[in-house]
Amino acid sequence: MHATLVLLGFWAFAFVTLCLALVALNIYSNVIDYGFTLNSVGKEAALAAVCALIEAASVWVVVTYLPAATRALFVPFMLIALIYTLAHLEDWNRFDGVIVLAFQLTIGGILACLFSGNVGAALIIAAVFAGMLAIIGSIAKGL
């Protein structure tokens, strides 16, 4: 397959998971009354497209040229969290960018497991993440 098509596939996957993460986090924050605010749909889509391109290019370089350097993907993912935190500097606290990243990685892991046929692993990831969200939500409601 042509390298450009692989990069576009990674970009589409990153964009979809990032958008789904923002929607899921917005719903979750409304359930626990957290006060998570987002910009307009156009601004968030543009920001998600840029961040997804950074993620996709990083994953593409590692998968294509440096398969032994998967730990190096920590840097671009933290860069994405920083970009989101800076884009929402007035509205978000310092942890919200990392929370968006956690939602995106969880959704991406579930989708990757489903695409590869590992339904059991996808269910385990979903159950563990839902349990963690339930614990965080009960703590947040208790405060």
The mean pLDDT is: 88
Order of helices and strands, N to C? HHHHH
* Ends apart, CA distance between termini: 52 Å
- Main β-sheet description: none
**How much of the sequence is in beta strands?**
under 5%
The Cα radius of gyration reads 16 Å
The helix fraction, in percent, is over 70%
Main structural class? mainly alpha
Mass-distribution shape? globular
Folded structure, characterized:
By secondary structure, the chain is mainly alpha-helical. It has one domain. The protein is built from 5 helices and no strands. Helix 1 packs across helix 4, helix 2 (41-64) packs antiparallel against helix 3 (74-87) and helix 4 runs antiparallel to helix 5. It is globular, with a radius of gyration of 16 Å. It starts with a helix and ends with a helix. The mean pLDDT is 88.
